[in-house]
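User: hey, got a sec? need Glyoxalase/Bleomycin resistance protein/Dioxygenase superfamily protein folded
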Amino acid sequence: MINGGHVILYSRDAEADRAFFRDVLGYPHVDAGGGWLIFKTPPGELAVHPADGPPAHEFYLMCDDLAETMAELSERGVEFSEPPSDRGWGLLTSIELPGGGRLGLYEPRHPVAHSLPDGR
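Assistant: Yep! Here you go:
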């Protein structure tokens, strides 16, 4: 049956963003050929939110301690799009990707599903 998910980030500079995930975040990866890297991501979750406009998709990284994670990433040269904000459900910021995109980073304050056992 289904054994995983595949997230795609579209980028204006895919090489720079691939280097970011490989070198800055240190994500393990495989080369699918010709330098086309596919990364192993941390455990994930899927949420479905209502939309007033056209359907859209977003990808966020999660952490246990936002301030600590931001400090560690800052030491590696990562820039943030915005200061942390408390959204009630968690503390949120955004990472500036080298290709010009943004990637959400948050410390959840809600129950998390990524550690639940498999099963139905």
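Quick note: The beta strands are 29-31, 37-39, 60-62, 80-86, 90-96, 102-108. Let me know if you need anything else on Glyoxalase/Bleomycin resistance protein/Dioxygenase superfamily protein.
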